[in-house]
């Protein structure tokens, strides 16, 4: 039986091991600085010298919050998520409001058109009554669209139907 080494409680971890783990995570997908720090802290503990490793990753351009935010926004738009939800998820990942705002702005998305498209894929018919309208509104709001975008999507559905 082999012992699984997770780094926590095994004494000091050398920088090469930390770099190797960071590169392994970044090879799978982009991460934000705070997200990568959290994963590494979870694996290696609070005493691990993470700052030099994270700085090295940034110098090598393996770790770039601006690039990560841009990729994240585009992937969420492709999933049909609205700006409110995207912003909230990026905040949870530790990105600054300035960086989030720039990434959402650079996505150059027509949020009203996306809300109409998402609504049309989910609901084939316009709402028949208030109960159905409320259900469809909740769906769009949960996807991260603001009230104006949600109502515009519902109005377009009524016009289509």
From TrEMBL:
Boundaries of every RecX third three-helical domain copy: 110-154
Positions of the RecX second three-helical domain: 64-103
Record's subcellular location: Cytoplasm
Keywords, comma-separated and alphabetical: Cytoplasm
PANTHER family cross-referenced by the UniProt entry: REGULATORY PROTEIN RECX FAMILY PROTEIN (PTHR33602:SF1)
General function of this protein: Modulates RecA activity.
Family assignment from sequence similarity: Belongs to the RecX family.
Name of the molecule in the record: Regulatory protein RecX
Organism: Alloalcanivorax gelatiniphagus
Encoding gene, per UniProt annotation: recX
